[in-house]
Amino acid sequence: MPELPEVETIVNRLKPHIQSQKIIEVSIPDKKALKNIAPQTFKERLVGTTIKKVRRKGKFIIIAVSNDLFLAIHLRMTGKLLVLSPEDSNPPYPRVVFRLKTNKLIFDDMRRLGTLHLLSDPNSGPLAKLGLEPFSEEYTLSRLKQILQSTQEIKRLLLDQKKIVGIGNIYACEILFKTKLNPWKKASNLGEEEIKRLYKAIPAILSQAIKAQGTTIDTYETPEGKSGNFQFTLQVYGREDKPCPRCKSVIKRDAQGGRSTYYCPSCQTSNRKE
DNA sequence: AGTATAACCTGTCTGC
DNA sequence: TGCAGACAGGTTATAC
Tens of pLDDT along A107-122? Predict the structure, then answer.
């Protein structure tokens, strides 16, 4: 469920609740949540440590603890990180529960697709091959141009975390609508002006969504249980058969790479093929 | 290098 | 009411 704006929001809201807190106890209702470590070892390494830093990398949430280990959490479709009082009952799908000094941090995940890695190097494992960060210093026009030298369709490329990180299905659709680009256009066929539009639209859409605290369609909520607000601002995503906000023609949904692409066939024109 | 498909999971909604 | 099928903010392995 979460793309960059949701993960960014989660990290920001999480910080004040868990930073500097000691991990008192760890319970693991779903062992399959741990991807590279046995449950017992996981507990031994973490219990007694203190949470130092919480940050985002791509769609991962990285929690650094006091013994130089890093927890890398990916929420995939339905994962949540919730902060509750010790006396509160657990949410319906708890996978890992961290009891802290004054509260508890719960990794809850209905579809159980989320992952949790314990790493000694924050650039290793699933974090090793991540692409360009849209809000980093490396995000420049020339770097984007370089990434676009590919025969991949532009929508697929935007979803490819090895190329550029943080963009998922909602924001890919919204970015392409804003830039009036056809999702099926080959990346290498984008013109100079189109690349410039894309270069601006990617951080523009993402930061707009961060300001709105993300998009809640179904399950996404902040660690405090609050919904986002960007769903009220969506132009094309989830709006099949509704009028295009720009030209009033009908918004379509077509499968692309096994996923739904929402677009306006009338104003996202630039050639579909070639 | 690309694409396509299935797989990992559980829930919800639609249509017959 | 029941039941099958489609679909869901994601990624990855495997096969052309």
Answer: 999 999 999 999 999 9
Q: Tokens 């031994």, residue?
A: A44
In contact, A228 and A6? CB cutoff 8 Å: yes
Distance of alpha carbon A96 from alpha carbon A253, whole angstroms: 37
* Main-chain phi, psi angles of A25, to 5 degrees: -155, 145
How far does the CA of A262 sit from the C1' of C5, in Å? 21
Give the catalytic positions of A in this structure: 2-3, 59, 259
pTM of the model: 0.97
* Per-residue pLDDT tens digits for A162-191: 999 999 999 999 999 999 999 999 999 999
State which amino acid sits at residue A132. L
Give the helix ranges, DSSP H, for A179-242. Answer: 192-211
Q: Under DSSP, is residue A207 helix (H, G, I), strand (E, B) or coil?
A: helix
| DSSP 3-state of A204 | helix
Quick one: tokens of A19?
Answer: 């930073």
Q: CB of A215 under 7 A from strand C?
A: yes
